[in-house]
Each structure stands twice: as structure tokens, then as C-alpha cells.
């Protein structure tokens, strides 16, 4: 394709083997502003043409080598559009024919007419230039068209693209809407919305599931509130509060009546005020919290029960960290120790323990977990506690200690009393054993003497008599011991209660004494007006006998023994007064003790030292008191009281 | 003639022991309480004292008497036999701790007592 030639001076290639011709033609054409190039043969011409792309070629036919016809043919073969003006001989018609056939554009005979030559050159050049110009325009047009087409294509592509995008977006949007719709419809959260007409327009599947009412039943239903909240009062109060609470609310629980008759608690959240949805005058989401509420209530009841137990139990429960700093103390620590539980928190549990016991407690906590120790009460005194302790574990690591403590003060006291009682019992037994052995020693000893020795009759008689006495004595001691033991174990005492007229009793008891102790004078006073009392006549007689026998024993012959009764409002006081040796303060102090004998040396024959102890037991079992007043060297009076018409204590009525 | 001091608050016991031992070559002394016992012991310096453990009612019991005599340089050589109740182990123990040389259990066989005394004073 020929290139667009922008040069203002067209180039003409003259091809002639004749230099002169060339020169002439050159001169002529140069005057008209043409650039001239020359070639002397066909090959040179082809080469120059290839190199220069001249606007016109003037071509001589007759040339050595390739002739002009051939050059023209070749030019045309390689698609050159360069105009060719053939130079022909004068008479060469065939050449002209051939030239045209070979593709020449025009010819001129040699020698050329210069004006015709000029004219034909001008014409051909102008045509060529115009052709080139046309070509140019065409190309430009084609280029424009191409560009425009490309542009259009691009625009079309872009449009296509946009369409595809929009479709995709629409599909995505549709999908998203669909998803949302599915979620809202099926999510495990209730969603309902009220339309502008005040009736439900949204009632999702969860609403259906929880309430049992289907969407079909609820949508558009004007009295939907009545259906869900049939109790008018409840409904009214609910609506009122909802209206008052004009802004958003969350997790407001309402009791909803379900289709199957159940009441379920729904926690509603309504943020319609801040997020209104067109078409919905209000909307809300709800959760069925019935189960949660049941669990909460059960938990609350359980906690209440726990609290009632810990509030009321007598044991103190205390939780501390590993160092003993109190983190929790149960309410009973107030009733047991006088401290408010709150005040204990943060204190060391060891700070209240008696200093002497602290170490032992610390050791006990680490070892057996069971300790007894003294703890200081808020009032200052000490209380005995028995504690069971246990380590609290979290993930195999000890992280605290639990102390469960009981007030054992009473038990400790009982233990001490028991110890004391045991001690007394042992003492008693030891003394009793001694008492029994004393007559036994005589019995055994003297009987052996009698068996192994030769004795005179007086002595034999004496010893036999001694044995006899001591046997009796032994019997008495045993009886007294049994009495004491029976009377002291009050539970087993069989006091036979009767209504007693003291006057008769006294007469009955005193008579034998008066007979046997004729050296003493007995005087009875004050029993005539005695009201009857309740008591065991045998035992009371025992007491009176005991007092009388003491009086007789310790007062001289011929002296007076006075037995008196004085009646008071609630009791009768009986006294036995002698004029005997009396007692020292020392003797009075030990008077009612078991085995105490005021005059030790005198009791070998009579008395076990138990008589007064037994009398005291009997009188106290009847609810009375016994005591003595004495002046050494002057005399002694024994008093005892008996309640009037009252039940003696510690008695099983047989 | 060996002197034997019998100390017991019970007259019958004193008599029994006296009767038991009178057939032997002994001079029998008796005391009925701790004070008398001490006085007699110091005064008479008997060869043997038969001493009841208890003797309630006095200011001194048998153990006190024993201790006192044994602490006293003059009397500590006197052989003391405590008369104790049978089966009361702590009597024997207490007697030993008080310094008694021997013990004899009540009720006793006079024959055995006789043998005991003979053995001691032999």
C-alpha cells in the first residue's frame, strides 16, 4: 500500500537509458517544481521505486535489460499504484497497446512535445496526488470508523457487563430477602407486628409454636389481646403499663394464655419507638421464659429452704480461706456466740479462740478435722465448741476450710459433773467397802479365835455376842447402803405416796422409842391441827426415827426430847430438839455427808454414818428441806419441812 | 518383849488383834486415832505398828501417821504394817508410797496375822 506522501514536492522518476532524454525531461519538469530522480535501466528503476516511492514514473520502453513494459508489469505485480507515463517510439503502436496492458496510465511519443508532456505529467501527478489524498481520507475514515466501532463495542460490553451486574445484584438481593424472610419466619424467637389497623400482621412460627395459635388464627384478628390475655384485669394493667412506658422496653415478662390452656411467660422486647418499620405500627420480639422462671422459682425456694435451715440451725457454719480468714459465717453465730455474721467476715477465726487452745485447733484442722476448744462469746466469757472441719477443694487444690461448730458447753459441764459423780461414786464405794469390812473383820476374826483357841466361858460368850452384833451391824450397813443407792437413783425410787396424817404417824413412830429409851422424856406438840400431806409414810417414819435415835444417842439420860410441828401457808415444819452435847460448827458442816460420824469412836455399835444422808434424800425427794441448829454443850434441833398438798418430786407412783 | 502398837478406830478390831496376839510374847498397845498413835509411837517406840489405812473422823488418817513416822528420824525404823481393805489396790499403793513396810488385808484370819507378826519380829 502506498504510504501517504506528505511532501509538497512530488517526486518524478525518469527511467530512460538515454542520458540526454533524461536531462531534457528533468529540466522541463524541474521548472514546475518537481523533484526529479533518474534511473538508467529497469532494474535500477525498480530499486529506486522501492526506495523512493515516487509520485510518477516516466518510463522508456526501449531499454537494455528489462524493458519498460516489463518494469511496468512488475510494478503492477507488486501492487504499486504509482502512475506510469510510458515513453514510446513514434511508430510503435503495439508498444502502446502493450504498455496499457502492462498497466501504464498514459504514454507520450518520443521526442515528446514539452507542453503535452507537462500537461500529461501534471495531470497524472495531480490524479496520483488526489488518489493518494483519497486514499488518505479513506484510511482516516476507516480508522475513525474502526475507532468508533471499537468504542461502540466497548460501550456495548460495558453495558452488557452492567446488565449482568445488575441482574446479579438483584438476584443477591432477592436471595438476601428470602433468607431474611425465612429467618424471621422460623427463628426460635417470637416476632409479631401490629399493622396500622391495630391487628397482627406478622405472627411467626415461633409465635405459633409457643402460643399454639396459628398465623391464620391471629393475623388480622381484632381481639387478639383478649385471646392472649383473657384476664381482663391483667390485660388492662398490662396495656396501661405498656402505654406509660412509651419508649422501648426489653425483656418484660407477661403471662400469656396459650391455646392448650397453659400459661406461659413471655419476655417481650419492643423497640418500635426507636426503630419503626413502615407498615407496622409496632413490633416486638419475645422469648418463652416459662422454663427459666420455673427453674428460678425452684432455685429461690431451694435457697429459701437453705436459708431457713442455716438461719435456724444451732450449729455454726463458717467458711474461711486457707489462712483462717472468715469469708462466711451462718446466722447462728449470733445466737451461739453473740456476733453478727457480717462482723465476722474478714476476721481470723483463730482470734476468738482461747489462747491456750489455738495451737491444738490449728493442728486438729490439719489432721483429724475434729477439735474441742473454747471460743470467746461477745459478752466476754468463753463457750466450749466442738468443731468438725473440712477442706474445700477446687480442681484438686484446697482453697478454703469449712468449720461446722456446736456449742458443747452444757455437754462439757455434764462431763465434768459426770466425772465428779464418778469420783464421788468411787469414793463412796471405797468408803462403803471399808464400812463393810469392819464388821466382817470382827466376825471372821472372832469366829476363828473361837474355833482355834481355848477360852474361858466369859470370853467365849463375849466373842459370840460380838459376832452376833457385828452381823446385825453388817446387815444394817448393807440396808443403808442399798437405801442410799436406791434413793440417789431417783428414777428408780418407788416412793409409795399416800395421804398422811402426821399426828398418827408421829404417835406410831414415837411410841416404840418412848418405850425403849425410858430414860428420855418425849414431848409431842403441834400435830393436832396439822393438815394432811402427801408422802411415803414408811420413808417419813424412817426420817423421824433417825432424828429421834440421834437425839437419844447424843443426849443424857433424863433429858427432854421435843417433837414439834409448825404449820405454815405452804408447808409444815417438824422439829426434833434435844438437850444433848450439841455440835461444833465443824461437825455441823459435815452433818449430812455420807458416812460422817460426829463422834467416830462411838459408832462401832450403832449407826453407819448414813442415817442423816438418807434422811436428807427422803426429805428432798418429798420437796422439803432439812437442816440443823445446834449449840455446843446446850443441845441440837433438827428441822425438816414438807410441802402441803404438793406432789413430791422425782417420783414414780407405784 | 516385843512391843506391838495397834491403831484402829474400831474397838472391835483393836480387841480382835489384841486377842489374836496376846498368846504371843508381845506387849500390846492400842491407839484409837492418829494423834494417839503418834504420841504412843514416839513414847513407846514399838517394834511393830499395825496401822489401819483409813480411820475416818480424825484429823490424821493411817497414811498420814505412816508418813509422819517414817519421816521422823527417831521413828522411821519402826516396822509398819498397813491394814487395808481387800481388793482396794490403791490402798496398797498408797501405803507403799507412804512408806509402809508391809500390808495386811482385812478381813483377815487371826492365824495368818499371828504368822505374819512372828515372821516380822523374828
Strand percentage of chain A: 15-25%
- Along the chain, the helix and strand elements of chain B come as EHEHEHEHEH
Number of helices of chain B: 5
Q: Report the largest inter-chain contact.
A: A-B, 27 and 29 residues
Overall structural class of chain A, as computed from helix and strand content, comes to alpha+beta
Distance between the termini of chain A: 157 Å
Mass-distribution shape of chain A: rod-shaped
Strand composition percent of chain B? 15-25%
Give the rounded overall mean pLDDT of chain B.
86
Structure description:
The complex is a heterodimer of chains A (654) and B (122). By secondary structure, chain A is an alpha+beta fold. Chain A has 19 helices and 22 strands. In chain A, the strands form five sheets. Chain A has a five-stranded parallel beta sheet with strand order 2-1-3-4-5, with helices on both faces. A five-stranded antiparallel beta sheet of chain A has the order 7-6-10-9-8. The longest helix of chain A is centred in the first third of the chain and has 73 residues, at 114-186. Chain A is rod-shaped and about 225 Å long. In chain B, helix 1 packs across helix 5 (110-121) and helix 2 (34-44) packs parallel to helix 3. Chain B is globular, with a radius of gyration of 13 Å. Chain B has a five-stranded parallel beta sheet with strand order 2-1-3-4-5, with helices on both faces. Helices cover 44% and strands 24% of the residues of chain B.
List keywords for this structure.
heterodimer; A: 654 residues; alpha+beta; 5-stranded parallel β-sheet; 5-stranded antiparallel β-sheet; rod-shaped; disordered C terminus; B: 122 residues; alpha/beta
Report a brief summary of the structure.
The complex is a heterodimer of chains A (654) and B (122). Chain A is an alpha+beta fold and 654 residues long.
